[in-house]
Design brief:
Rossmann fold, alpha/beta, 9 helices, binds adenosine-5'-diphosphate, binds magnesium ion
């Protein structure tokens, strides 16, 4: 990868860009990205959440906005997308621009220009934080992000199983690449344990114990948070009720700790 030919876009209105990534799908990347955005917004920061997962956009579902299409406005002879606002967060997603029933097949230059448009052509206004939810793996979207934009850091999400960790190791190595890398802020271990509601003091490590800590140690990066399996989580996410999710004390505390470290 040659980084010298491309000049990185500087986004003057956005103070910090934080990328949320993982090697694998289904580990809770979108949930974590949305949770970070919710917590930051609740602390009074102006926050944008960009869903750049071209294989499975989640923001429309998580914020109960499936099927919505953003307004387009003209400014200085250019067209811009107007982000939706939910819980004070400015939202843009590839899912707002394509038909739900159509798979998005973007590769190489198309993925690169699509992502650049989503970032550059959305009217974000002034933001303290832009959180970017990415597709699993290390593909075109990640390469474009690293080569073309000045992201301030990346948070990796993993589950405790070894399989998820091997994939995440590859992705971390790419983000730590000497030429195009950005600071790796740390690891979030999701689905760390399960505690029954009637015995909240008991922890069942259903997907193994200590995986996130081991990964963090191997790469010499912090373990930012451990988020337990939460019965309400998939229900509230599927119904687009991010606020209900954040009302859970365990979840709120986990995101509180995470956001304290990365801000
Ligand atoms: N800690 C958790 N407890 C219970 N369900 C979870 C948890 N984290 C994520 N989920 C659920 O798992 C599924 C996958 O999460 P998602 O954030 O979409 O993953 P990814 O973006 O990595 O593909 C979703 O249905 C989500 O609600
Ligand atoms: Mg996702």
């Amino acid at each position: 990868m040659d980084n010298n030919q491309i000049e990185k876009t500087v986004l003057k209105n956005i103070k910090k860009i934080i990328v949320v990534a993982s090697g694998k799908g289904g580990v809770g990347k979108s949930t974590v990205a949305a949770g970070i955005a919710m917590k930051l917004a609740s602390e009074g920061y102006s926050v944008g959440l960009l869903d750049a997962d071209i294989y499975g956009p989640s923001v429309p579902l998580l914020f109960n906005m499936k099927g919505k299409r953003p307004f387009v406005v003209e400014k200085d002879g250019k067209s811009y997308l107007v982000p939706f606002i939910s819980f004070g967060i400015k939202l843009m997603s590839i899912g707002f621009l394509v038909d739900d029933s159509q798979p998005i097949i973007w590769r190489g230059p198309k993925a690169s220009s699509g992502l650049s448009q989503l970032i550059n052509d959305t009217l974000w206004g002034d933001l303290d934080y832009l959180i970017i939810d990415t597709p699993p793996g290390t593909g075109d979207i990640h390469i474009t992000l690293l080569q073309n934009f000045n992201a301030d850091g990346v948070v990796f999400v993993t589950t405790p199983q070894a399989m998820a960790m091997e994939d995440v190791e590859k992705a971390i190595s790419m983000y730590q690449n000497e030429t195009i890398g950005i600071p790796v802020l740390g690891v979030v271990e999701n689905m760390s344990w399960f505690s029954p509601t009637i015995h909240p003091e008991e922890k069942y490590f259903i997907f193994g114990n200590g995986g996130g800590a081991k990964l963090a140690e191997n790469f010499n990066i912090p373990l930012l948070a451990q988020i337990p399996v939460n019965e309400k989580m998939s229900a509230s996410c599927d119904l687009g009720r991010m606020n209900e999710l954040m009302a859970d004390q365990q979840i709120y505390d986990a995101f509180g700790k995470l956001v304290d470290i990365i801000t």
